[in-house]
Amino acid sequence: MRALTARSALLVPILSIALVASGCDAPTEAVAADTQPALQRAAPEDVGMSSERLTRLHDGMQQLVDDGRLAGITTMVARRGRVVDFQTYGQRDIEAGSPMEEDAIFRIYSMSKPITGVALMTLYEEGKFRLSDPVQRYIPEFTDLKVAASWGADGPVLEDADHPMTIRELMSHTAGLAYGIGAPGPTDRLYATEGVLSRQQTLKDMIVKLGAMPLRHQPGTLWYYSIAVDVQGYLVEVLSGQPFDEYLRERVFGPLRMVDTGFHVPEEDHDRLAQYYGYDQDGNLTAPANSGTVGSRAFLDPTTFFSGGGGLVSTTTDYMRFSLMLLNGGALDGVRILSPTTIELMTRNQMPRDNPERSPGQGFGLDFSVVLDPVASEFYSVGEYYWGGAAGTWFWIDPAEDLVFVGMIQQRGGRGRPSVRSISHRLTYQAIIEPLAQMEENE
Questions:
Q1: Is residue 197 assigned to a domain?
Q2: Of 43, 168, 227, 387, which is the most exposed, with the fewest CB atoms less than 10 Å away?
């Protein structure tokens, strides 16, 4: 991760490095690996948004802090490839009296998943696999997995899987895997008991454990949020012959200059990690003891478990760079990660034909939720795609409006956490005063 002095470029009003409209195979000028080109900025009015109306977003976020519902927030909005708004609110650490800053580092948890999906699809583009391939072809431990048809007093009642899970099912959470966190089902409890997500292991250790456990349902029959993306991280290792963390550095983080994204925070940057908060019984913000995460130093110390499903830390700017790459068809600052056709494939609904929605108006692509019907889902555009993390981080990408939003908080979910994602969504879209189609007609 970079030194503090390398981040000052974000504060310059007029920035010099432009987001390219079409990707090249190499950057036009050399950039040191530990520095980050500045994102191009614009006045909101230059891209069809209203500065005045964006203050409603600012006021809405600040109110959540003033009401004691969130400790600190960052929000960043980009349209037509240019950042038009970057705000911080509240405290990075209330007890230390540290204000939230633009370079704060966050545990992004499940926002790691789209990054893992991108890494895996770079290997797809190299012809290393097909989406219809059975996972067991590359992970022998998954050969002939059984399905828990039911659970009795003596454990699962097993039946044969009607087909081996495919990589497409793995990437769309329809593979039949469970998670072991946040769910009461017996398969999830088994995952928790066996420590499937233990940080004191390797991805290989996780795979061995999973290979000895039943699937919770037949592959390809329904959407169930699962450990599938951690399996994808191991699949990257198998297909590339590299450790997953190394592959991410070489193929995603390095090329995109995501200089503060990784599986732990280096010691010199510990003071930039935002405090993690929960709520006490009276609804007041409270910080868990030793809060690298709840009750541990996870994310502060190096790990051997490179969790593609929830193991990364990042910054608002780093994640905006990743998101802009996606919106720009796989390229940023002259460096191409994926082709536009691959991005289109990833953001296309991949759900089974007889069960095409994971929730009203929403399907699921390859590691993204995808809006199919804006009315049923209360979104704005067909094709909008997004995801979030357990500590409240969130992002969305709207190709129809050429819009990206990244928001970061560090707040445990459940009772008390406000619907900051929904609030920010409405307050961002109401600031659009010129739809993209109209702008293109006028150009």
A1: yes
A2: 43
